[in-house]
Design a protein that fits this description.
Elements: E1 2-7, E2 13-19, E3 26-30, H1 44-48, E4 52-56, H2 73-87, E5 92-97, H3 99-110, E6 115-121, H4 132-148, H5 153-166, H6 173-177, E7 183-190, H7 195-204, E8 208-217, H8 220-223, H9 225-237
Parallel strand pairs: 3-4, 3-5, 5-6, 6-7, 7-8
Antiparallel strand pairs: 1-2, 2-4
Helix pairs in contact: 2-3, 4-5
């Protein structure tokens, strides 16, 4: 493993870890809100055996800082593009989890020519796509961290992270239908994201398929990361069919 730190134009430092052979297909791993590249730790051996893996600490997460007042989706997308250009690769595969899946969609819409495949684990286009308990918990957390932010560096950072979840994605059906990238949508049987929402996304995207992980919820990548990696790796590597 090699660890790199890339400084953005606003002075923000983005840290990412590099695994595997850089002559192989490059896959970018995007973690969820409040997490870090460590989220993928137990998945990495499976991916790195066949791919050039880049695990990113998103802006304001893990070892990466944030020089802006808030963490904005546009900045997250720009960070990913700067990393791609720094790697000198024309196309990447992207695996995103939860918020990371949402950011992956936004990046692919803006830079479709630079994405060859997408694996989206529990994405959602709007708050209607998830069960209310998730948004209720996030709303409470935002209020609590805002109140504590003046007195706690951790609360301030967590409040900045939660801001990403409250920012509208503004992804249209037309944008999704124009996205011809092969896409695997993954969701747990008991996920916080609604199954009908994932199926709706798959119906709009012309080259999308859905994988339902039986017996699992939203946090399958925590509870059974190695099994998750084994299931999605064939699609990441370039096979037309994942092990569904």
């Amino acid at each position: 493993m090699k660890t790199h730190a890339l400084t953005m134009s606003d002075g923000t430092k983005i840290v990412y870890d590099e695994y595997g052979n850089d002559t192989l297909t490059t896959v970018l791993l995007l973690h969820g809100n409040g997490s870090s590249a460590r989220h993928f730790k137990r998945q990495l051996p499976t991916y790195a055996a066949h791919l050039h893996v880049i695990a990113i600490d998103s802006r304001g997460h893990g070892r990466s800082n944030n020089r802006q007042t808030d963490i904005k989706i546009t900045d997250l997308i720009s960070d990913i593009e700067q990393i791609r250009m720094t790697l000198h690769v024309d196309q990447v595969v992207i695996l995103g989890y939860s918020d990371g899946a949402n950011i992956a969609m936004k990046y692919a819409i803006k830079y479709p020519q630079h994405v060859s495949r997408l694996v989206l684990n529990a994405p959602n286009l709007t708050s209607e796509g998830v069960y209310k308990i998730l948004w209720w918990g996030d709303n409470v957390a935002q209020v609590a961290t805002a109140a504590m932010a003046p007195f706690s560096a951790y609360a301030k950072r967590r409040h900045e992270q939660l801001h990403v979840m409250s920012e509208p994605l503004n992804i249209t059906c037309q944008q999704l239908s124009d996205l011809t990238i092969p896409t695997l949508l993954v969701i747990g049987e008991f996920d916080l994201v609604k199954r009908r929402h994932i199926e709706h996304i798959a119906e709009i995207m012309p080259h999308a398929q859905v994988m339902i992980l039986k017996g699992h919820g939203h946090f399958v990548t925590y509870t059974n990361p190695r099994k998750f990696a084994q299931l999605v790796a064939p699609f990441l590597i370039g096979g037309n069919d994942a092990k569904i």
